[in-house]
Every structure is written in C-alpha cells, then in structure tokens.
Amino acid sequence: MGLVAALKTGGAKWLRRLFGRDHARIGIYGPPNAGKTTLANRIVRDFAGDVMGPASEVPHETRRVRKRANVEVKANGSSLTLDVVDTPGIATKIDFHEFMEVYGMSEEESRRRAKEATEGVIEAIRWLEDVEGVVLVMDANEDPFTQVNVTILGNLEARKKPVIIAANKIDLEGASATSIQNAFPQHPVVPLSALTGYNMDALYDTMIKHFR
Amino acid sequence: MPMAHDVSISLVSRKKLDHMSSLEKVAFILDEVKQDKILVLEVGLDPKEEASLIERTMREIEPDHFIGIEMESYKDDSPQRILGLLRTRGKGPLIQGRRASMTVVGPADRLRTISKDGNTIQALILGNAHEPDQARDRARPPRRR
After folding, report:
1. CA count, 13 A, side-chain hemisphere, A192
2. Which CATH superfamily is domain A21-211 in?
3. Confidence (pLDDT) at B114
4. Where are the domains of chain B?
C-alpha cells in the first residue's frame, strides 16, 4: 500500500472513531431456526418496504447468503445505513432424514436440501470476515450456551467486531432472555419477536448506538 | 479395532494437541470422529479452529455415512492477556481468541448433549449402530416453531 493510500485509510478510520460510521455491513447470524430471515425481513420491511426472502419452520430454509444494500435504520432521531446480510444457519450436523421424517419432504428433496445446507454453513462462516458487525439471533426458548453460539461469538470477539444478541421468539410462552443475558453478559441482549415486531424499536436503537 | 456397535472413547492429552498445528488438530479430530470415535480433549480449540472444524465437517458430510459432529466445550476462564481481562470491565469474560478447555467431540449420530452448565457437560452416547434409525430418532431435536 502506498503512503497516500495508507494515510487515507488511516484518516478514514480516525474520522470513523471520532464521529462514528454512518454506513455498516451487518450480518444476521445464528443457528438454524432461530428466526434470522424473519428478523432480516422485519428490518428490511420496516425501513425499505420489501423483504429479503422466504422464512420457514423447516430448518435450513436459507441456504445462500442474501444481501440487501442501503437500508436506512432510524430510531430516536438518529439513523444508520445498513447493508443487511442474511446468512444460512450455522450447524455442526445436517441429517437429511430429519427433513423427510419430521417435515415430510421427499428423499430427493431432502438430500438436495441437506447438500445445499452444508454449502450454506460454509458460506456463512466465510462471511464472518466481511461483515462489520453482527446481530446474533438466539431462540429465547432454547439453551443459549450451545457450541454454535459460543463459536460464533468467539470468532467475532477474536476479530473485535461488535455484536448484538437478539433474544428472539420472546412472544412464546415460557420464553426468557435472562438465560441468554446470564450466559453472555459481555454483549447487549435485546428481547424481541421478529414475527410480531415486539420490541424492534429497542433493537434499532441498540444497532445505531452499537454499530456506529 | 472396535466392532460396529462398540463405542470407542479416546482421552487426548494437552501434550499431544500442543504439538499439532491448527490444520493438524482439525484433521486429527475429524479423522477420528469419522471412525466413530468419541474424543475427550484435555484442551480444546480456539474459536477460529472451531469454525475451521465446522467448515471442514460440512465438506465431509456424506448423507448415508457421516452426518456431522456433536461438540461441547468449556472456555478457559483464565485470561491469556491482562488487557483482555481489563476490557471486560467486570461484565464477564470475553471468549475472544481463547481456546476451549476440556472438549467432548464425537459423531453426531452417536453422541448427543443432554445438558451443559458452567461445571458439567452431560452427554448421551447412542449405542447400537446396527439400528441407525433408533439412534437417529434419539439424536434428533424436538420440532419447534
């Protein structure tokens, strides 16, 4: 890198630190079925009027990374323009039998879905390098202290990237954000329902403060 | 050599792991797990190695033979760097680049984590590889929204 280019890059970083960024590439991460695409759709719908892709109760519905550029998120008089990156769920195992036996898919369809899901996990992991911040979506009805959550958080912390944890599905009976807050007290946790829109304003406010 | 329905558990020492590069560790773990072995590592992987293990696992999944891994670990509470501790400002330890301490990893159709807290990992070893459907049923998570 030339001296002028280095000065420009360094200067831009210094200015960002001083005034905060006004544009950020944010990844929506989490295990399968945590509600990542529902959340991405909610964000894009609230501020751009359309959606990113189909959501489903069948795991690994999102098997390729989807991107939506220039979504201007506003809250409490502030705004931040986001490139939203919706990622496939990260898992350590994928069994095509589950799609057949639990969700009634054909064997051919199940095998294809499983194959695509493995590729999606790899793509999601690769994107960890390219996002500037992450909303990590966890199901507030599940034990948060899973290997996938710990691995994602560890990788983001090692790269010094800001993280917000969305404690999703808080509308379901018995859901609680407390166990998530206790497991990961070093990160902001926002209880919300991406499906109903409950507490999304708190997420937007936290995103603007945290990702700037 | 274990028979098809036997489960082999290997306790792997810190000394052995410390002599391996990241690539060697990931390859060693995956090779062992694909042979139906459950490993208990005295010291586990750092977050980037864990991500690398997941990535390589995904590449090696064969739907009829290998469906992936089950892995659970603790993070070492002792910070590697004083600055790392200071940055937490008393809010709780960052995971950062810290590698896991004791780690259990095995084939997903043979090992299932039942519960995990700050002190105990409770896992079920699914025996009887002659009845894969039963093992799968027990390994499968319940359906949720």
Report:
1. 28
2. P-loop containing nucleotide triphosphate hydrolases (3.40.50.300)
3. 76
4. 8-108
Integer CA distances (angstroms), A5 to A1, A57, A58, B21, in order: 6, 48, 48, 35
Put simply, whether A87 touches B (Cβ < 8 Å) is no
Q: Do A158 and B109 touch (CB under 8 A)?
A: no
A60 Cβ under 8 Å from any chain B Cβ: no
Q: Are residues A157 and B94, on separate chains, in Cβ contact within 8 Å?
A: yes
Q: What is the DSSP string of A115-153?
A: HHHHHHHHHHHHHTTT-SEEEEEEETTS-S--HHHHHHH
Domain boundaries, chain A: 21-211
Token readout for A127 is 């994107």
Which of helix, strand or coil describes residue A210?
Answer: helix
pLDDT in tens, A28-55: 999 999 999 999 999 999 999 988 989 9
Query: From A108, which residue of chain B is nearest by alpha-carbon distance?
Result: B63
A104 interfaces chain B, CB cutoff of 8 Å: no
H-state helical runs in chain B: 14-18, 22-34, 47-60, 82-87, 132-139
Query: Is the confidence metric ipTM above 0.90 for this complex?
Result: no
Contact A103, A45 (CB under 8 A): no
- In the three-class reduction of DSSP (H, G, I as helix; E, B as strand; rest coil), residue B92 is classed as coil
Give the length of chain B.
145
pLDDT, tens only, A150-209: 999 999 999 999 999 999 999 999 999 999 999 999 999 999 999 999 999 999 999 999
